[in-house]
């Protein structure tokens, strides 16, 4: 029942975002924009993303090795592809499916491989936070101006009572700080706060678990390369549409970071709806129309989904074949 409610909420979130993004869409115009796209750049983007997935699979073998399990990169890659495929079919099912695949091919206990997946997610989240922070610093003027234009009420309040958004932000933060300080004892006993502290502690423990890897520098390098690959994938795909081809690499960083938030949010189809919305909104910062932004997001998300569903299905067949061979032996 609990899982049904969770899936219902995820479907609702994704459905609302999809409705908001596509409610006024001229479908004929959208298909024309996508049909005019340069497929070479899209294919190159997919190729780069697959290299990133392979690096992810190779990085995982370092964690398996730390647990004294020798897993080939090929088998790990099959598991990664199956995990991505399942995320498109059942939200958040990819991790378990990935671990189940390795248990079939290499008898790696699911609970052990799940622990390694948690470590990977923690490292990836840490790097994503660093990327977001770097982007905010690089694009500070653009992002702050966007926030100002979005939240500032430009109408005069009375006569001569026009306050800046910075003043309201400062007052709001001060009020929150006072409230938190006055309720500090009650908050310390709150189950929500206790869970939050445990999450933070788990975050630190997960990062420290990298020390058990024989080559932590290689692990960190591979982690960075994964994200570089994902950014490059989005960057080369920008050249597929004339409306987005003028954006430079720094602009792409902002689009990538905001689009990644859409993937992280709970939604069916690995970010269907949420990814489209956030990418479209980020492209508006650079003068790309809503229609062109939707076309770009639909193409990038759609081609990734098609490729990973096909490759994931092929990987599933291979894994089942290997399991059958093991049983026959």
Order of helices and strands: HHHHHHHHHHHHHHH
Radius of gyration from the alpha-carbon trace, in angstroms:
23 Å
The end-to-end span amounts to 40 Å
Low-confidence stretches: 153-163
**Helix/strand-derived class?**
mainly alpha
**Shape category:** globular
As a percent range, the share of strand residues is under 5%
What helical percentage do the residues reach? Answer: over 70%
Number of helices: 15
Biggest sheet features: none
Annotate the secondary structure layout.
Elements: H1 2-22, H2 27-35, H3 39-66, H4 73-89, H5 94-106, H6 110-138, H7 140-151, H8 165-182, H9 184-188, H10 191-208, H11 216-238, H12 249-264, H13 268-271, H14 274-284, H15 290-328
Helix pairs in contact: 1-14, 2-15, 3-4, 3-11, 4-5, 4-15, 5-6, 6-12, 11-12, 12-14, 14-15
Walk me through the structure:
This protein is about 80% helix and about 0% strand. It has helices at about 1-20, 25-35, 40-65, 75-90, 95-105, 110-140, 140-150, 165-180, 185-190, 190-210, 215-240, 250-265, 270, 275-285, 290-329. The chain contains 15 helices and no strands. Helix 3 (about 40-65) runs antiparallel to helix 11 (about 215-240), helix 4 packs antiparallel against helix 5 (about 95-105) and helix 6 (about 110-140) crosses helix 12. The chain starts with a helix and ends with a helix. The protein is mainly alpha-helical and about 325 residues long. The model is unreliable at about 155-165 (pLDDT under 50).
